[in-house]
Specification:
Helices cover 72% and strands 0% of the residues. By secondary structure, the chain is mainly alpha-helical. Helix 5 runs antiparallel to helix 6 and helix 5 packs parallel to helix 7. The N and C termini lie far apart (43 Å).
């Protein structure tokens, strides 16, 4: 059975490869997503939207993540962890996924594909991102110093 988690895993693979080979053709990535999700229309659409959203907002996402990752620059993070964080942050901020759900999905994916500390690392950063975003949503103000 193909699920949204599986779609996220496929997007993680595309983002991972793009980190290592940034000149990949968009059509190749789209074909990979479609093929790996067995041409399941709704899941391909979900994965494509997630992948494109992360790519479009990468700078903003990296700033948000970097702000909450004490002593870890984005570039120093493991590639898996960095891209799991990007996906979950995107889904919380722009994708309408409730923070706790995005965090749980990210932790599970990080545990599966990352190292033995990835789940804890991802959880700690996403918890801070979520709290900041929740506070900003409550007050109606954008999070301070994120985009400056």
């Amino acid at each position: 059975m193909t699920t949204r988690r599986r779609a996220r895993e496929i997007v993680l693979q595309v983002l991972f490869e793009e980190d290592l080979h940034p000149l990949r053709e968009e059509a190749d990535a789209q074909e990979f997503i479609s093929r790996r999700l067995l041409q399941n229309g709704p899941l391909v659409e979900f994965a494509t939207k997630l992948w494109r959203g992360v790519c479009e907002h990468r700078g903003e996402l990296d700033k948000r993540i970097g702000k909450h990752s004490a002593n870890w620059s984005i570039k120093r993070m493991a590639t898996i962890d960095r891209n799991v964080l990007r996906m979950a942050t995107y889904e919380m901020i722009h994708g309408g996924l409730p923070g706790p759900v995005a965090i749980n999905e990210a932790i599970e994916i990080a545990r599966r594909y990352g190292n033995r500390h990835s789940g804890q690392f991802v959880n700690g950063i996403l918890d801070r991102v979520f709290k900041e975003n929740a506070a900003a949503t409550t007050t109606g103000q954008p999070p301070a110093n994120v985009l400056s």
